[in-house]
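Input record, target 12 of the design panel.
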């Protein structure tokens, strides 16, 4: 027996993938899609000569809101908006597939971050199970150098289930106040979906 079958497997940009990666509206020039390939990139360099973040400083992209783990004196100004990183993220992970996926987001340093830190915090909404009365987001936990999620019902840190149309909004915070100019915060952002 011999039979031919069609296969539809296009290679697309990050915004068009089954699991999409989309820069947030507040990300500006720091989080964007690159050229014709359309891959998401986090970039703290500038065509005007800027080469990175300042030593002894804090940079924040996105909203942390009521889940902010920073003490009040450390908080940077954020737009007045109810909620969490779901609303105003540095970037979002969106399930554009017709089936649910378990998503994990991690960040691994290329070099030695020294005493500088990168924090990512996120919140998710399922397109099918949002409680319109309470609008409760997924609670999130953080670890330096990686991101871990714990769902509102007590799921395992590191994984979050996204229904079709569901979204994770991720905000980014970089803190170099205890660091030095030798610290290297460059790394690899890995988004995996099962």
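The sequence produced for target 12 reads:
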């Amino acid at each position: 027996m011999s039979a031919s079958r069609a296969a539809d497997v296009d290679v697309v940009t990050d915004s068009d993938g089954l699991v999409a990666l989309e820069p947030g509206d507040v990300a500006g020039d720091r989080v964007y899609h690159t050229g014709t390939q359309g891959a998401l990139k986090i970039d703290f360099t500038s065509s005007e000569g800027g080469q990175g973040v300042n030593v002894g400083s804090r940079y924040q992209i996105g909203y942390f809101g009521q889940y902010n783990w920073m003490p009040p004196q450390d908080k940077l100004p954020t737009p007045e908006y109810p909620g969490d990183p779901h609303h105003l993220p540095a970037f979002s992970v969106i399930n554009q597939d017709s089936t649910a996926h378990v998503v994990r987001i991690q960040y691994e340093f290329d070099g030695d971050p020294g005493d500088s830190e990168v924090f990512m915090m996120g919140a998710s909404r399922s397109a099918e199970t949002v409680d319109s009365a309470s609008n409760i987001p997924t609670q999130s936990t953080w670890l330096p150098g990686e991101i871990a999620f714990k769902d509102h019902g007590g799921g395992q840190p590191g994984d979050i289930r996204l229904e079709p149309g569901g979204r994770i909004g991720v905000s980014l915070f970089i803190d170099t106040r205890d660091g030095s100019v030798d610290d290297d915060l460059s790394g690899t952002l890995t988004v995996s979906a099962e």
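The chain has one domain: 19-193.
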